[in-house]
Amino acid sequence: MIRTTIAKRVRRAQARFSRLVVILIGRGLFGFRIEVSGRGHVPAGEPLIVAGGPHRNWVDGFLLMIALPALPRLTFLASENVSDRLWKRVIVFIAGGFEAVSFSSAVNREALTAAQEVLRRGDRLGIFPEGWDHLDGPMREIGPFRRGVAFIAQQSGRRVLPVALTGSKPLWRGKTLRVRIGAPIDPPAPDADRAEQQAWSDALRAALQALIPPEPPEIPVEERRWPWLTDLFN
Length: 234
Known about the structure:
Layout: H1 2-29, E1 33-37, E2 49-53, H2 60-67, E3 74-78, H3 86-95, E4 98-100, H4 109-120, E5 124-127, H5 148-156, E6 160-166, E7 176-181, H6 194-211, H7 229-232
Parallel strand pairs: 1-7, 2-5, 2-6, 3-4, 3-5
Antiparallel strand pairs: 6-7
Helix pairs in contact: 4-5
């Protein structure tokens, strides 16, 4: 019991520290102007599933960390290549809220087991339903969803919080990035079959598509400072 209490306190402290570090790097070092709307939709203390999109850059996960409260901690199911470079591994280690899993099928057992564990321990589960194969997709068009998020929501009984992003590609120092949070969505019915799960997934995709914020202001290419940030976070 004592060990469990200590572990929870450590995780809470890590969550607050991680979010602070991400804010300092994003706003301080890179000068990003991060505009967040819809924070009133975030239910206090609820360990729900956070579905983000469109997902076009590695920085998107950190945008969600900044947009949401530090607690419950936001933990992501991420593709194995989330830490394919040394500096990424360092940042992921500091942030802590990432678990690398495989996304090789529509309903991947490894990912589902990891997702259920995140929610069971009271964290928020962060996931980009499009996956990593859409990083070069249209900036304002969310790709199709598989049934994974629907299955996780159905099995856990947790609601899903849609969060739409814009501005993360291209990047430069001082760019405006926008995040819009929607109202939580109830999970599929406990007895929903595959077709109903897919219909629920399609409805989640439509909700995210409708949430995408207006594009941030552009500036001439020659005036952009640190334009290499695009490739750094790609």
